[in-house]
Structure formats: structure tokens, C-alpha cells
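Run log, item B.
One chain of 125 residues. Sequence copied directly from the ordering sheet:
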Amino acid sequence: MVKRAPLTRAQRREQQGALPTAGAYGIDAQDAGADSWIGRYVIHAESADEARARIRDAGFHKRQISAHWSPALQPPEKLPTDLGAGDRHWYRSRLDDSGWTTWEQLPEDYRHPGQGQAAIDPASR
């Protein structure tokens, strides 16, 4: 029996068909402002690379992230209606005791609080 070489990423994508690249990307991450300490953050990006860069630039760390969302895998809750092509804002929903909050728009240059400042809400100052 002859063992075949594993497929490359490009070959797998070609076999499976093109995956959408532009669209909503997001993460579930630690959020001290939520009752459950979980927040859902979404952005619109033209590619997965752009989304990864924006998530990194916003200060999210791998240890804080519990789920990733993409155009191919959307979160179960409805996405914000304002989120669309050309929109550079971040959107956040928090998991509280009564469920997910409504989406709130964050600045384009949103920075997630560092772990040492996670319990401090800058909006309350």
C-alpha cells in the first residue's frame, strides 16, 4: 500500500470550495464587566488576517479568548445590524445573569483592558 502525502492547505481549500473571507469576525473573551466574565466582541474585516491583526492590536491575548467567530461560523445570537462592510467599529455584547446584552458600539481603536486592569471600568471614572 502506498501512503499519500498529506494535502496542503491550498489543496484542502480547493477541494472544499472557497470559504468566505470578508464579513463578521469575532471572539468570546474574558470581560470583567459582565456578570459571567464573558464578553462577545465582533468586527467587520476583509480577511481572516486583517481580523487577527485587529484582535491582536486591540490587546486580546490567547489566554483570554474562549471562542472564535468568522463568516463561516457565526455566533448563535444575531449580529449587530450596524455591522457591515466599511464599518471599522468594534461591537460588544456581555453575558449577564439574564442572558446576552444588546450590542453596544465601541470605538474603532478599542483597546481591551489588560489583565491587571480587567476589573476597572474606564467608563465609570
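Observations after the first pass:
- Helices lie at 9-16, 48-57.
- The CA atoms of residues 103 and 122 lie 18 Å apart.
Flagged for discussion on Thursday.
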